[in-house]
Amino acid sequence: MSEQEQQEDWGEAISFDGRIDVYPSKPLPEFNTAGGTAVAARFQNDTTQPCFALICNKGLYPRIDLINSMKMVDTATVVRLREGGVVDWPAQSARYYTLFYEKPIAPQYWRSLDETHPVMGEDNVNSHFIAPLVNMLLDYQRMGVMHGGIRPTNIFWRDGSATSPQLGDGLSAPTGLAQPALFETIERAMCLTSGKGNGLHSDDCYAFGVTVALVLLGHNPLQGIEDKALLRAKMEKGSFNALIGTRKLHASHIELLRGLLTDDSSQRWTAEDLEQWLTGRRLTPKSSDSGRRAARHFRIGGKDYWQIRPLAAAMSENVKESVKIIEDGAVEKWLTRSFGDGEKAKELRHVIAELKESGSKSHYEDQLVARTCIVLDPDAPIRYRGVAAMPTGVSTALVDAVLTGKNLQILSEIISNQFVTLWVNVQKDMKVDLVPLAQQLERIRGVIEKASYGNGLERALYELNPALPCLSPMLRKDCVIILKQLLPALESVSGTGAQGSEPMDRHIAAFLIVHDKRSESLFVAMGESGHSQRKVLSILSIFGDLQYRYGPDRLPRLSGWFIPILEPCFTRFLSKPFREKVRRQTKEAAGQGNLVLMLKNLDDPRRVTGDEQDFLNARLMYQNVKQEMHEIEKNLKDKSIVSREVGRPVAASIAAFIAIILIALVLGRTFLNSMV
Amino acid sequence: MSEDKAKKEKAVKKSNGGKIVLFMILFGGLVPFGIPTFLVCLGLVPTLIVLFTETDSRHPALATVGYMNLAGVLPFIIELWERGQTMEAALSIIRNPQSWVVMLGAAGIGQLILYVVPSMVASMIIVKQEARYRVLRDGVKQLEAIWGKDVANTMPLDIVRANQKG
């Protein structure tokens, strides 16, 4: 069947941006990821290039901030990203962020981590598998981006093929969310899946190391082991020993894996080290053990611990017991006497004293243990009340918490209790790089503590995740990433029954404040209950401005959404005919979908002050009229007053007039007589 | 206080003295010419009666009756003066009943005017005011229809708007 004929069978296409056709009826499950569902796609101007669209419809938000830079990457070792954007999905009446990739040449290398593959020869593996992927790691290192999804099930390759393996998608979900614990460093494996944070190049190198180990062994030696047990094994034995142990591998591969799987991130090989290894240069061997051991064990939770890292992990799981041993100084003494680390003991003492001085009483025990664990194991994530997150992972963990409703309060406390600042302060390396993060979270702490509209956790979400779509419940079926998309999204949701009584909520307000840099004062009125005039006009003013700047010119449904809540704005006008006129004009403007005109009708200062002035003039007129009516009533009650006050003077005037005429006639006759 | 009293007494003395002089001039002038004229001016008795009986400070009745009375008496005063201001002429005028008909009749017409005109004028004004009242009442209704009941009071605009919402 020709390509054209095949496409005819793919059913109706949805167009993205007039350039790419997406075929929902042609799913490609082999390319599905944790964050998205794959379907066939085709470029309209390049039909020879097979593509697929990864629809991010699983409630996880893709790494949109990296789309533009990843589109520039065109290497043989990475499945090429061609485009990314929001696509209408009529079947679900929704819009999803979609990634458009070129189809990889080879099939998925491992479909499952439980598969068994034939072991390849050393040269074959080095030249056809490791070398190309080292180039991939170099590219990512240069870009300063962590892939976060390096594993055999995300590589497209045929065993032993000379064609370069291609690394699959790493953008459709937050970093590391789909990555099994096996491929994560000890620190990242301790975290919530959503709390691993952006990660570093060394984390990608670690994942590459585990991938190489599985490929070299031909199977997963830790198959069937639960994540907790796996983590414990890594902590106690070291990742290399836990994974490889005494299994037989080529010396060069042993060296490679020791370098990649060392648990000390500062010692771990980078892509440049790998490049050197490929050329045959010998590098300094790395220690693969699990770290220093104390002279004496420390017992907690019924188990004995000889190393700090496992001890800290155990303490975070046994809070009540840990509090006792911390407060009675047992941990400090153990650090000083059995571990010989007086500096850490001093640091611990200082942190405990600081907490006591702060007077913080809320979840004091959990705070104490969390801070102690940070001091004991600075590389580990922040562990508090059952939630573990790296400082860079707090932002994505917060998104997950808002979406699922789980751990929201705990994450809020992690921020409020300044754990990130403490974590940054105890780091020996990369402290300067982490200071901006600590400062940002310090600022976010102030934002979270304010309950007003436009602040709170919602604002923290968008401040920490600038590329996050708006998570308003009204817009969940849409994907509003930039301001320009907000009004069209509200337009399409209005009238569906999914909308609230007003086109504004805390999420939209926070989104606007962060993306439009709006002043918080504009949103103060929106916290008022009901639909006050000030509140409605504030919303209309903001949306009118957005329509003016970004369009579209017609938003009839969104405008119609406002009509039921505009009553307080109409009753602001005191003249009933004028009020009806404003109502009529506003409804006409709403019919045209013109928010700007609606606002002008409702909030023109000249209209408002004119109406007020007319009302005051009407009051004055009313008083004058009433006064005149009162005078008339007096006269009507007693006619004799009129008769006396007006009638008699008139009678006198008439009599005077008649008398003058008569006198003039008499004088005239007398004069004429005298002439004769 | 005693100085004011002395000044008042001095003013009264001066006023009394002036009145005496005026009276003497009038009396002196009236004696040769006044008596005949006086006799004819008896026709102004209706005016004198009204002068003493009217309570209205503006004296419309006095004006009404007085002007007409004067118009009735004047021809006879002219006739008297034409005939030389003699007592005989005055008496012949007074003895003529027609003279009294004219003099008193003119006063009577004045009284008639005083009786009829005020009620006519009052009726006309009442009719006009009733029409005006109706117009004003309609105006009040219109104002209330346009602006609501709060146009009649002096409540602040915020409360007026709150009432309208309610």
Structure description:
The complex is a heterodimer of chains A (676) and B (166). Chain A is of the alpha+beta class and 676 residues long. Chain A is built from 28 helices and twelve strands. Chain A has helices at residues 3-9, 67-71, 122-143, 186-190, 201-217, 227-237, 239-243, 251-261, 271-278, 308-317, 319-327, 330-338, 342-358, 364-376, 394-404, 408-416, 419-426, 431-449, 456-464, 486-493, 506-516, 533-550, 556-562, 567-570, 576-592, 595-603, 605-637, 639-675, and strands at residues 14-16, 20-27, 37-43, 46-55, 81-89, 94-102, 155-156, 166-167, 298-300, 303-305, 382-384, 387-389. Chain A has a six-stranded antiparallel beta sheet. A two-stranded antiparallel ribbon of chain A has the order 7-8. In chain A, strand 5 (81-89) and strand 6 (94-102) form a beta hairpin. In chain A, helix 3 packs antiparallel against helix 9 and helix 20 (486-493) packs across helix 23. Chain A is elongated. The relative contact order of chain A is 0.05. Chain B has 166 residues and is an all-alpha fold. Chain B has one domain (2-151). Chain B has six helices and no strands. Chain B has helices spanning 2-40, 45-53, 60-82, 87-95, 97-147, 157-165. In chain B, helix 1 (2-40) packs across helix 4 (87-95), helix 2 (45-53) runs antiparallel to helix 3 and helix 3 (60-82) runs antiparallel to helix 5 (97-147). Chain B is elongated. The termini of chain B are far apart. The mean pLDDT of chain B is 84. Classes of the chains: A alpha+beta (676), B mainly alpha (166).
